[in-house]
Amino acid sequence: MHPVRKKRLITISAILVIIGAAVGLMLYALQQNINLFYSPSQIAEGEAPDNVMLRVGGMVVENSVKRDSQTLAVQFEVTDFAHKVTIQYKGILPDLFREGQGIVAQGKLNQDNVLIAQEVLAKHDEKYMPPEIAEALDKAKQKTESN
Amino acid sequence: MLPEIGHFSLILSLFFAAALSIVPILGYVKKHKVLMAYSVPLTHVTSILVLLSFIVLAYSFVTDDFSILYVSQHSNSLLPTPFKFSAVWGGHEGSLLLWVLILCGWASSVAYKGKTLPQDIRALVLATLGLVTTGFLSFLLFTSSPFIRLLPDTPVEGADLNPLLQDIGLIIHPPMLYMGYVGFSVAFAFAIAALISGNLNSSWARWARPWTSVSWAFLTLGIGLGSWWAYYELGWGGWWFWDPVENASFMPWLAGTALIHSLAVTEKRGVFKSWTVLLAIFTFSLSLLGTFLVRSGVLTSVHAFAADPTRGVFILALLFLFVGGSLILYAMRAADVKSEVSFGVTGREAGLLLNNIVLVTLALTVLIGTLSPLIYKALDIATISVGAPYFNFVFSLIGLPLMIIMAVGPLLRWNRTKLDTLIKQLLLPLVLAAVLTGITLIWQKFEWITLVSLFVAYWVLLLTLIDWMAKLGSSSSEWWAKARKLPRNYYGMLIAHLGMAVSLVGILFVSVQSQEEMVRMSQNDSVTLSGYEFVFKGVSKVQGPNYVSDMATISIFEEGRQIATLYPEKRIYKARTQMMTEASIDAGLFRDLYISLGEQLEGDTWGLRVHVKPFVRWIWLGGILMTFGGLLSALDKRYRKVAGARI
Predict the structure, then answer these.
(1) CA-CA distance, B168 to B225, in Å (whole number)?
(2) Which of B147, B166, B185 delimits the end of a domain?
(3) What's the predicted TM-score (pTM) here?
């Protein structure tokens, strides 16, 4: 083989190997770190797996927020107006967390279908409804209407 | 009356921008010198008109003209004046106007500075910029005009600026970020001009280089400011969240970093020509994609302010038009380009090629992570989010080789490097870095990956310094003269690389050594973190100009001695009745003490978030160094001389 061509071949195969490895790594990492979103209805119907990192979103149910008197532990319910999910969290809730507001919580479900949250997210803008929640509410509404 | 003038001026500017994108091209096709020369005045007139309408909008904000819908939505008479001004870009319409204004600013600078360019190239560059301006001006006018009036029912009071945006960081962050984002349009325009004219020799790389470096410097500064703002304003103590909006600015940064390096090779060695053109297109496309992601509201983000999805369609169409058009042009022309020079695997070219591969891979990583929720959604598979662990994992694995390339690369010679000399050069810093890592290890415990990264960071620091000292030679009498003789380009690179290493050190310490605790505290309760004792002294009410606040007082002791008092706040902004956490920080070069106030739990008991963040300032310090390096290398005398010689 011509030396220039040989060099070119080596360069190109090296590049391909690097890119292949990088893409493989990327896809592996992506696979491990995708958090699926579930609505309270999906959780009530048992669609969500236990002990896997996932996200739940909905409106915080009025008068459902209970705080521990000694620690920062807090428990509340979110709803898509068809079903409710109980969420437990230990820490400081975001500024826009309020009863009746839409929130998203990330964590793992335990055997009793209670979400042990590691993170509770509320949005910057109170006019704004996270699209997942808007959609979940929409689906739940359609379901109750068709029933 | 005034807002109508602003609006009219904007409409007029659209016509001039449209003329700018047509007339010089006509001139180019017909080889008509006068038509091509029109590109300069057309650029300036467009810019002046856009500037006029921007001034009108800013004036309307400062004078509380709530008859304008946009003003009434984003301002309030109680808002302090500097914030009234920055509220101009506090919402979608205004920030888009700022986008276009900055684009015009870049175009006018090219028109002004480009006197030494060949006339046809200048005409093509300005026409391309004119086309981009036309696209964005029509987007602005047809979907999101900031001058829509509320007449005759003028509200007496405005809805106020989102409290998160009422901050000095947010006055300067968007303009800096846009300067960078939009600045890549210049490199893009040069690439397009090179493709159209078929004049793909290395001169286009020389013309595009300083512009790209300056844009990159601004983008670096903008991202740094954004990160700093998020750190102190969001109250979470984090400095980067892998949020889609952050990623939107980070992708062009990664691609732009690759572009700077590949432009250097193309200019100096005449290789990678077609790749560099493609990268210029790619970088600007990522800027456009970023604009689309931020402005369309398709992604869930902590930054997601209420957005209108119909706008997304328009900007998506623009995106396809520019990216598709330039890629077709590229496909038609790039085949003609051949690099005449070959290079060896041990040469600097190969090092820079690796740099490009890694940086583009990183940009791709961010792209996939950011877009996969959209793709899953579009294919109706599921609603997902991609967590920070994905990005952290890939970056810690791929970022490390990049740092090694960065350390070794500058020592390589063009075409071929003698390996034994290279190894000699690498060895001493390697040993010193190992010693430094050992010293750090005595002081603190680390995971192995952090340890390796820290070692590499030290190595980069030492290599860069030693390379510089070697260039100065051993005799101390000529030291100063030699130091001054080295080109600014070289110093720019040196400083930017040092900045990268400094940022890396900061990132590593913060991610590994940070201490955080969320605590429940009543008056005189205390908590100890990393040897600092935080004593909660209670909360009092404070009245601000447009908010009321609960302000906590926390005294901090180190070894029994009081070193600081912090006042974190919980503010309620009246106009929106929106609650806001205002963190309080005792900043230092080696550590920040950071406290934010949570909710009032009962009586005088509050939730508090207390952080000790070692070396966090280094992250932004490195960013400042990189910015400075980018600007310095753009000021290299070579660009002026060579450009001048071409007349």
Answers:
(1) 10
(2) B166
(3) 0.91
